Amino acid sequence: MPLKVSLVSADAEVWTGEASLVVAKTVEGEIGFMPGHEPVLAILAEGQVRITETSGDKVIANAQDGFLSMAGDELTIVAGNAAIVA
């Protein structure tokens, strides 16, 4: 079962879809999420969010000023600023 991922900025939804892996930068360091990951609530640090879609395609976004929440194979990343770069 894939992760359901939602990356939103203060004014728009940046990316939503299913992923097999997401790596994000928090104030504690980088953290990777795969299906079945335990629940997490963390403060987002400025940096890249790297998403590997279930198809294998990669999405890279810059994000800063926010938080991320992982629960029940649903990952939500809320950033003050976020934009797709690749």
From TrEMBL:
Per the record, the major location class is membrane
Instruction: Give every ATP synthase F1 complex delta/epsilon subunit N-terminal domain span.
Output: 3-82
Domain of life from the UniProt record: Bacteria
* Any Pfam family hit: ATP-synt_DE_N
Membrane topology qualifier: Peripheral membrane protein
Give the record's keywords alphabetically: ATP synthesis, CF(1), Ion transport, Membrane, Transport
Q: Which residues form the signal peptide?
A: none
User: Which InterPro entries does the entry link to?
Assistant: ATP_synth_F1_dsu/esu (IPR001469), ATP_synth_F1_dsu/esu_N (IPR020546), ATPsynth_dsu/esu_N (IPR036771)
User: In the UniProt record, does the keyword Cell inner membrane occur?
Assistant: no
Compartments, record wording: Cell membrane
User: Which SUPFAM superfamilies does the UniProt entry name for this protein?
Assistant: Epsilon subunit of F1F0-ATP synthase N-terminal domain
Entry's family note: Belongs to the ATPase epsilon chain family.
Q: What is this protein called?
A: F0F1 ATP synthase subunit epsilon
